[in-house]
Design brief:
Layout (H helix, E strand, L loop, with lengths): L1 H32 L4 E7 L5 E7 L6 H4 L24 H9 L6 H7 L3 E3 L6 H4 L15 E3 L12 H14 L2 H26 L1
Parallel strand pairs: 3-4
Antiparallel strand pairs: 1-2
Helix pairs in contact: 1-4
Length: about 200
């Protein structure tokens, strides 16, 4: 009970600390591509429970309808869809997505109890429904903003390895392990930020 309380206090602290950045990002989105600021999508969480996940909008209006047309360009293995330089990105959206800053609104999902700071990334409803039975064991814990699998270049490796990694993490999840993932993620995000700056220059 005390640990849970302290955890939520820490998450609230992160929201307060990142609020100025979230405000700047919101203004940037409005200026570059108008409203809405947030993208909301149904994702699958713990025990296969659906919830609405928040992200800063990174793509042009109507991007969902264009996904089928771009399916042949999909760079991800398995039922997921991913294109590194997705043509649907807005100018600001590409930077936000590649640096992970578009995920900041999910701190509210953590505060609500739908997600955790560390955990398997929640899949959209359509993609989650296509998982094999054994792959759905990743849903025994809350999905997270940060996934250990991201550090291993998940989009360039087989989808089955991604799922096995999530299931292994679910079995060994602990405060100590999560702290280690956080410390690894800091230089990783810094590397992504510098890389994206160089690409845009």
């Amino acid at each position: 009970m005390i640990v849970s309380f302290l955890y939520h206090i820490f998450v609230f602290f992160l929201i307060v600390m990142t609020l100025p950045l979230q405000i700047v990002i919101s203004i940037l989105i409005v200026i570059s591509s108008g409203l809405p600021i947030l993208f909301k999508q149904i994702r699958i969480g713990k025990k296969n429970k659906p919830f609405i996940m928040y992200k800063f909008r990174t793509m042009a209006h109507g991007s969902d309808k264009l996904q089928k047309r771009l399916q042949k360009h999909n760079e991800a293995d398995g039922p997921v869809f991913k294109i590194h330089n997705d043509p649907r990105y807005t100018k600001a959206g590409k930077f936000l997505s590649h640096t992970g800053m578009d995920e900041l609104p999910q701190l509210w999902n953590v505060l609500k109890g739908d997600m955790a700071l560390i955990g398997p990334r929640p899949l959209p409803l359509e993609e989650a429904c296509r998982l094999a039975k054994w792959q759905k064991r990743r849903h025994t814990i809350k999905p997270g903003i940060i996934s250990p699998w991201v550090l291993n270049g998940y989009h360039s490796r087989p989808f089955s390895e991604w799922m096995k990694s999530d299931i292994t993490y679910a079995k060994q999840k602990s405060l100590r392990y999560d702290a280690g993932v956080c410390f690894q993620m800091i230089p990783y995000l810094g590397k992504l930020f510098i890389q994206e700056i160089r690409e845009d220059v």
